[in-house]
Amino acid sequence: MPNKEMIIDDSTANLMSTYNRFPLTLTKGSGSYVWDEQGAKYLDYTSGIATCNLGHRPPYVQAALVDQLEQLWHCSNLYHIPSQQQLAGKLAENSCFDHVFFCNSGAEANEAALKLARRYAAEIKGTGQYEVVTFSQSFHGRTLATLAATAQEKIQQGFAPKMPGFRHLPYNDSDALADLIKPETTAVMLELVQGEGGVIPARKAWVEQLVAICRAHDVLIIVDEIQTGMGRTGTLFAYQQYDFEPDIVTVAKGLGSGFPIGAVLAKAHVAKAFSPGTHGSTFGGNPLATTAGLATLETLLGPSFLSDVQEHATYFKTKLQQLAEQADAIIEVRGTGYLLGLQINGAAIDYVNKARELHQLLILVAGPDVIRILPPLTTSVEEIDQVLHSLTELFN
Questions:
Q1: Nearest to 87 by CA among 301, 291, 250, 303
Q2: Structural contact between residues 121 and 129, judged by C-beta atoms closer than 8 angstroms
Q3: Residue 314 shares a structural domain with residue 289
Q4: Which among 358, 361, 365 is positioned nearest to 386, based on CA atoms?
Q5: pTM of the model
Q6: Helix, strand, or coil here: 332?
Q7: End-to-end CA distance of the chain, in Å?
Q8: Each residue of 312-355: pLDDT tens digit?
Q9: Which residue range forms the structural domain that includes residue 10?
Q10: What are phi and psi of 189, to 5 degrees?
């Protein structure tokens, strides 16, 4: 058996040091569980950071991929790809959107959305507006444009000068919306539950006010659903829990059950700003990725799937709130559906490490004092109770 220290020590490898990795090497996954190279079993309540929404290796998705592997792996977007067309149709059918562009990741989806917003202002409106407003503690990606959109200084540090065309306002602050629109503003981009920013849901009254202002000034609304989409909050998209229809939504993570895929969904009047040659992606929407996406979406849309998620997620959050009432270290339970956070009085990473070491439970942080919990949507009540037992021991 390989030496564990050699496997987990990146200083002996050729990888760039872009991650602070936990001392754990995962080699197998099934359902809600993963195993390390020594055979130890862990309950995975990170879901690959909200990516493995159907758990690890969901059988229906795996079977579809195995079949596609026997047929065709890749062809360019110069040709029709049946699974791509089917996935686009199913996404449109189950949302308020008309057209879809496929790419490979969340950052790419947000890049495409930002380009689409500028192109819409230039080619459809004829105004040349370019500015996109985002909000404090947001996270939209790590490319040069999306880190400029991300209103977190720690993400932007060392990459100056920032790409121009972005302005940040406080999140959930109604008074700040008085400064929402400037003459150059073409779009507003927001997360309806900030994941990386601390698991903070948008207040419905604030969203209603924001939408009214945008509509009055013909400014596009882009909702970043990279983390909240594909059932994570209990509905297929988080915007469906708010009383409005965005102009553009971006998705990735959970769309492919761990297979790399991203997508931009847009209303018809906005999507027509993209014409042949204005945007593209070599691998975007390839047969393997869209096969994974189609099988994932078909599962999410199955009878009672999302209603079961809502029921079990409500049970979990209620039990977490009961734990918070008993544990002095827990300040607040946050989140929606299976995107949950515990704000604590202490260092979140300490509890994350103890959960892994003492209870073989994998959870995450969302800032220095927030624990982020991202169960697979397929998790059982028995697994939820197991996690609650582990957390009770951690906080008592």
A1: 291
A2: yes
A3: no
A4: 361
A5: 0.95
A6: strand
A7: 38
A8: 999 999 999 999 999 999 999 999 999 999 999 999 999 999 99
A9: 4-58+305-395
A10: -125, 130
